TrEMBL record, chains A, B, C, D:
Gene3D superfamilies: 2.60.40.2250, 3.10.620.30
Protein's name in the database: Transglutaminase domain protein
PANTHER family recorded: BLL5557 PROTEIN (PTHR33490:SF12), BLR5614 PROTEIN-RELATED (PTHR33490)
Transglutaminase-like domain: residues covered: 145-211
Alphabetized SMART domains for the sequence: TGc (SM00460)
Superkingdom, natural source: Bacteria
Length: 256, 256, 256, 256
């Protein structure tokens, strides 16, 4: 069964790798990478009957600093947006901006443009949605999250992205590693995390509606319009994920 | 109010133009083109208060032959698909493949792969959906079309695209000019039309679930994953379309 | 006779246009644009026998400020350079880095990396080459400029680009409008001008070895590895340029 | 010392790999891949002082059929050429079309367009140039090859490419593996080989001015305008290549 895996670190982090990053499988099968239009490194392979174990290990350097905050980052007018950013204003599979526009303007239309508007959207989503692993499903959209009020990190991101786009702020979905090293206590089993980015002040800034405070140590793996573009694995047929482990550890560098 | 218009002939038809193609507006406003990732020529402009008239005229050469049929075109296995075609298997705003997979396999899973499978999907959609201008709405998705059983050419295309993707056949949305010159009788007011393309036999072929027979004289304007990518105009705010005219006429060339 | 014309303003300046920019020809012939890998807007057309007049008029807004100077802009190490910038370190038709490396290191190898190194190269080229319209020829390369010591703005640029690349500084060729509005006296017949850009401090900066002081009002038309990529017109066969006029005029905006 | 290596199989052959293809180094250093505008997989790494051993092993499936010949492949007129092919008509570092145009038209201007014209160019180059490893140098251009009449496979390719471009036939440089399995006798030490491709009949065809007969088993590694784009390794500073081994072996598949 063919499989598309986005299990590598995103191409934008290539220069931070301190070892080569190689994907190995058991049993060994042919595989190759290509880079999609979002800079995601996509690995194509065919799962043998009997299943496959895929592993990828690497050492990466990270500044381990909290997500940047720039309260003064100016929101561009629509006419100012670069051509290749416009794409991130459109409706996408899990972000039905066409259905949420009136809601978004009702909730946020009185606020001034800019950083504060994004923060208000993130505060809203963070407060309105109750985290619940049991409420996750692969077809869940921003519209459904808005009405059901439950979800996981992916759902927080989708709703926040859709609302930002409705307010004419380009937004894109991100997924990757996010450890617990910046948290006071160790959390249990690790999973990949989802967050999002918005275009403010002429660049992309990270926001995280699930956690709603600046986190450290995000390692981006895939990015796109929403989770449809950034699925870590896409299989074309029925597959059972039988086990899933993420190990992360850290080492401190003394900067020269 | 900013506007994104895909009112030019698609870049793939540039060589068929027999005059320059220029977009003019009244009043005159600054505008410029860029080409998006689907080869669509996108015009950016800002509508003045008071509204704007946009016009575009050109002469284009077309072979005026019916859509090509190749019953033997082989359906590639998933592993064979080129990297840049995979994109057209994924879920998109108006084509919820994730929700329609079981339905698609229930309806078509017994059929052999290939041209006949696509034709069966097109026959099904053509037969199941009743054309109704009154049933159109901008948020309507393939899933909704499937359940409501009504729609316009865009809806026929979305449902057929979603079903093809569920069956692992890459499919993409197309919109453009389609005159009545190949029809026995003149139809009334013209509109742009929507159809779709599937990847079979190593290339893209046109299918049209609205008409379900090979038409002549399609002039492609925009293409994408679905209507979200290929909207002829996208405005960011409330706009009224007050009038809309398409004139087409034909002249026969004697081929040398 | 087919022709490729890069007579539009470069895509990076599209947002500064205050009128639409349209290319007209007499007689009228079919033409269309595409954008090449350097962001150049390329117009394809076929010249009729009897010749053609091509014209393009537009109003563009420019800050009319001198080329930016940042003495502290840091020169990236080779390992730090982004992937898509590496290309501008390689040898190209008119910039034979492979032949000039020893010369470059002999002249500049003792200097610290950074802005000062580029300025030293520009000072050298500006001083070593004598401007002479009569010494121009389409096949002249940086190596030949170095030995002949004469040239026009294109030749100054080629030699400076080649020397920068030899010193591991990415450099690219630029051509476009450069009026005389920032000069004390009106100069005579206008021509297009050539300058270049180097990658320092994580972005591109303009340098001009012909003039060697910060000029105002550059309007970029085409960019590339050297003049082979950025020729304003490329014809495939013998053509006579019978007349060539550039009119520029300025209007001052009061910034809001 | 930073290094750019194009030691992987070209992305167009990814689907033929029957094992994963991984580059290993001794000592182990960080490295990553990107894909350039020609589809070349480029590996970036930094050589440690003391040197490095780079190795890459893989199994690839190849039809092992002689280069395709299509005497009827039509030469497109310039106006018909696709936009992204035009690039391969321009002058480049080692193919000075601007200096060779008169020579090319003098030699081949009387011939009809098409396959036969390319074959005449290849015959000419094959006959005029004497193979001589001692006559190779990294700065040697088509113009120099034409006058010196000696060279290696790279030089044969450069002269043939330049002459094709002068005759308005797009041509691009290729390098990769070419074993001796299709030859009657084993040849000695193996090296990578260079050949070229021309655009005829709406696609690219392989020609080889060094061997001048259809060879089997080419495995493409890198492609570009000339050897400047397709160098298998580019180092930025002085490096000694101390050893260089290529092992190839074959296994026959029974096709299903």
């Amino acid at each position: 069964m063919p499989m598309l895996a986005k299990l590598s670190v995103h191409a934008s982090r290539n220069k931070d790798l301190r070892t080569a990053q190689r994907i190995f499988t058991t049993p060994e099968v042919p595989l190759y990478d290509y880079v999609d239009g979002f800079g995601n490194i996509c690995t194509r392979l065919t799962m043998p009957t009997g299943g496959i174990t895929i592993s990828c290990g690497f050492v990466i350097e990270d500044r381990f600093e909290p997500d940047e905050v720039d309260l003064g980052a100016r929101q561009a007018s629509l006419a100012e947006l670069p051509d290749d950013v416009l794409h991130f204003l459109l409706a996408s599979r899990y972000c039905e901006t066409d259905k949420l526009t009136d809601i978004a303007w009702g909730l946020f239309g009185h606020l001034p443009m800019g950083w504060g508007l994004v923060q208000a959207i993130v505060d809203y989503v963070h407060g309105a949605i109750r985290f619940d692993y049991m409420a996750a499903r692969p077809t869940k959209t921003a519209w459904e999250v808005f009405h059901e009020r439950t979800g996981v990190c992916r759902d927080y991101a989708h709703l926040a992205i859709a609302l930002c786009r409705c307010m004419n702020i380009p937004a894109r979905y991100c997924t990757g590693y996010l450890g617990d090293m910046d948290l006071p206590a160790v959390i249990g089993d690790m999973d990949f995390s989802a967050w999002f980015e918005v275009w403010l002040g002429g660049r992309w800034f990270v926001f995280d509606a699930r956690h709603n405070f600046p986190r450290s140590g995000r390692i981006l793996m895939a990015r796109g319009r929403d989770a449809a573009d950034a699925a870590l694995t896409t299989t074309f047929g029925a597959v059972t994920l039988s086990r899933f482990d993420i190990y992360t550890d850290q080492d401190c560098l003394t900067q020269d």
